[in-house]
Design goal:
Helix content is 33%, strand content 21%. It is of the alpha/beta class. It is globular and about 55 Å long. 14% of the residues are buried. It is built from four helices and three strands. The N terminus is likely disordered. Helix 2 crosses helix 4. It has a three-stranded parallel β-sheet with strand order 1-2-3, with helices on one face.
């Protein structure tokens, strides 16, 4: 969609939202910026998707941002290995990934 805007001379849109397409065989263009946002267990499809990207020899997206909030900070440690693997693969391929992890306990 951005290429279409550039070729006809109009400015690109501020945001292109697409999906959800978290099918295990999804591919992402190399120049893509992936933004995953989830709360609690809602992050599961994104983690599966990131695991698929990190586990294949495919080129990873240029930039990846994962925003994850949960009530218990210990939830992050459950996926420490996956997040580390994804980060390591991003470093190997010289692409960026940023994990925005937030713990927000519910107030009663």
């Amino acid at each position: 969609a951005v290429a279409r805007h550039i070729t006809n001379g109009s400015p690109p849109p501020d945001l292109i939202a697409d999906g959800p397409y978290f099918y295990l065989q999804s591919t992402v263009p190399e120049d893509a910026v992936v933004v995953a946002i989830g709360h609690g267990t809602g992050i599961a499809p994104f983690l599966t998707f990131l695991g698929q990207l990190a586990g294949h020899n495919n080129r990873m997206p240029m930039h990846t941002h994962v925003f994850w909030t949960t009530e218990n900070a210990t939830d992050f440690s459950l996926f420490k290995d996956l997040l580390s693997t994804f980060s390591d693969r991003a470093t190997e391929q010289k692409v960026s990934c940023t994990f925005h992890l937030h713990s927000a306990q519910r107030l009663n």
